[in-house]
Amino acid sequence: xxxxxxxxxxxxxxxxxxxxxxxxxxxxxxxxxxxxxxxxxxxxxxxxxxxxxxxxxxxxxxxxxxxxxxxxxxxxxxxxxxxxxxxxxxxxxxxxxxxxxxxxxxxxxxxxxxxxxxxxxxxxxxxxxxxxxxxxxxxxxxxxxxxxxxxxxxxxxxxxxxxxxxxxxxxxxx
Length: 174
Description:
Elements: E1 8-14, E2 19-26, H1 30-37, H2 43-46, E3 52-56, E4 66-73, E5 77-89, E6 93-103, E7 119-128, E8 131-139, H3 145-150, H4 158-172
Antiparallel strand pairs: 1-2, 2-8, 3-4, 4-5, 5-6, 6-7, 7-8
């Protein structure tokens, strides 16, 4: 992408501490972007992994809110996640911990309801009245070793996060 475009990848980090972040400058006010992210029904439109099939739940308004996602990937097949909002700052930050709610594979049944303590965060930093730096972070630093290995310390999600921010950029310009 041209560096002259407002919507461009600004930075990407993959730290040995099992935290991965991708940032993008988006040409839209933080309030508009936050409104998109705070409505779980928009998440399938933003998802860069191709795994999110549907999302339900009301607008995210506070820590403690829960929204659900119907998911699919080749490894796990169909499954459902309940996402527990653990950080919320209106217009600035949304963070949730996914918890497996249902799974089609027999080997995943024992993990249903376990809080693996991995987190997805969107943080918005207004740059001016018409642009915002959006950072998506996946943090598996507190997750069990098996999960950290499965997602390569979060590095598995870097490309998906980049695509998610591209889609969020497109959606926020509509």
